[in-house]
Predict the 3D structure of the following.
Amino acid sequence: MEYITLKNSDLRVSRLCMGGCPMGGYGWGEVDEQALVDAVHTALEEGVTFFDTADTYGLGQSERTLCKALGTARKDVVIASKFGVRVENGHTFYDNSPAYIEKAVCASLERLRTDYIDLYQIHYRDGKTPLGEVVEKLEELKTRGLIRAYGLSNIFAADIPEIQGTVSRFTSFQDEYSLACRRHEKDILQIRNALGLTPMTWGSLGQGILTGKYDRSCSFGKDDRRSREIYVNFHGEKLERNLKIVDELRKISAGTGRSVAAVAIRFILDYLPESVVLAGAKKPKQVLSNAEAMDWHLSEEQLRVLHEISADEN
């Protein structure tokens, strides 16, 4: 396993972070809680020390499942959670207000059965609460010992001036990034360079298309979000293009003895030094496949090939 220290913090984490969206039990097809618990145990055995979740994943179920799975190992890992997506009376909206942050962090702490959250992240900006007010509240939570550090998610280069205008010590930021989705790459690099934060990538396997498990005949049930055309990686021309990328991943996989998913993850780790890759998993075997990405490097030629075949997403 590979480890880094998140910027502006003392949080030492594995560069492979287990994503917690599938733990919410919603929108990813059939999900078995025991398999999820076993997947967390496998991650721990593989040296994963970083687990990312959010209060909105399964409306808190992801945090509860993670708590159950970690048990006494909680003290040995870094837990990242998020706030800002509020669901009430069947309506979903963004809320970054200090009053809601207080409510959200207390609820997450209760579900996680912990006294503190290591990394607390703004899931989405609400478009109305000044970032300075959000930071002031996060600093207060930090002073109270309820969180150890705080980060950002789903931000872009246009947000840099506002972030720079706050007296803050953000640690990290998350954005969607993979060989199947490189449209945010310039933003990620600009944010990293301008703000000195640790990049974290979600959607790192393109919602699964980069695992090599799917072909052009793939289909999903109504209980799987990937059945919707908004999840473009599995539909139309985008699917065809992704399958060409997968063909190249398979060639490298055969030559390196690593899984197709591992090659896709390794591209991010090598192409974005000092980054963290988030990858969700529903079963232990998926964790093992993802963990094959660690402790080796793609050659310059392999990086070039993957860069070129996915470059028009840049």
